[in-house]
Amino acid sequence: MAVLLLPPAAMASSVPVQGYTIVHTFPHDPSAYTEGLFYLDGYFYEATGTVGASSVRKVELASGKVLQQRPTPWPDYGEGIVAWKDRLIQLTWQNHEGFLYDLASLTPRARFAYPGEGWSLTTDGTHLLMSDGTSTVRLLDPDSLQQVGRIDVTAEGKPLANLNELEWVKGELYANVWLTDRIARVDPATGKVIGWIDLAGLAPAPETLADPVNDVLNGIAYDATHDRLFVTGKRWPRVYEIRLAPERRDGPAGPIARKARSRPASP
């Protein structure tokens, strides 16, 4: 049994932690290996991963029905997505290229290149924010898609790697930390983790998942108009609308490791 250690920040007592309550559940395609998720005008937009099964899709909130879908070109491995004006922008994992689609029809428009890996995208309304698996979040010009800045994310003064799915929520950057049950709340001005959202217990029982090592928490969407926060995971059968609990301070006895039968295949 391999032991995959959580980030050192997971043990920190000086960073407040919030639990959650479930407000509503919505159906989710259990074959969707969720890499990106956002909410727009009453719908979810989702990007799925794995080679040969990657796609971008528009999903009906109440039913989970896929209303529109566009496969990611072979052999790219689809990752995060974001909407900017009339475009939907998608990253790929290790192919150093992304795709532009028409937001209304999901018709492909163009490709663009970038160095390193692509994990997730969100926007603060001025820039695109991109994670790449490190502790650095890149700031991209949304029109040229060129990097114009960076946010170095730290927890308790140490770099916080494995930043995955991103979402902009009330002036803060929320980031899934891959292979953990936690979302980091990041101050974008300083890069410091100012809080943890602990989603322990939300994941389906491991025996109900096709691949519990890889079918982990990933997917954050925020409805700013109605102040609703949604989360899901890779190949989970549900999307959850959650309400955050009051902050608490964790002691050093909190969970610090997750056991797995084998090393996960991808973020």
Key features?
267 residues; mainly beta; 8-stranded mixed sheet
> What general outline do the C-alpha atoms trace?
globular
Q: What is the number of E strands?
A: 24
Q: Radius of gyration, rounded? A: 17 Å
Discrete helix count = 0
Rounded average pLDDT: 91
Largest sheet: 8 strands, mixed
Distance between the termini: 20 Å
Strand fraction equals over 45%
State the low-pLDDT regions, or none: 1-12, 252-262
The helix content, as a percent range, equals: under 10%
Secondary-structure element sequence?
EEEEEEEEEEEEEEEEEEEEEEEE
Spatial strand sequence of the major β-sheet: 17-18-19-20-2-23-22-21
Structural class: mainly beta
Walk me through what this model shows:
The radius of gyration is 17 Å and the shape is globular. It is 0% helix and 53% strand. The strands form six sheets. An eight-stranded mixed β-sheet has the order 17-18-19-20-2-23-22-21, with no helix packed on it. Strand 13 and strand 14 form a beta hairpin. The protein contains no helices and 24 strands. With 267 residues, it is an all-beta fold.
Topology:
Blueprint (H helix, E strand, L loop, with lengths): L1 E4 L10 E12 L6 E7 L2 E6 L6 E6 L5 E6 L6 E7 L2 E6 L4 E6 L5 E6 L6 E4 L4 E4 L4 E5 L6 E6 L1 E2 L2 E2 L3 E7 L2 E6 L4 E5 L6 E6 L18 E7 L4 E6 L4 E12 L7 E4 L7
Parallel strand pairs: 2-20
Antiparallel strand pairs: 1-24, 2-23, 3-4, 4-5, 5-6, 7-8, 8-9, 9-10, 11-12, 12-13, 13-14, 15-16, 17-18, 18-19, 19-20, 21-22, 22-23
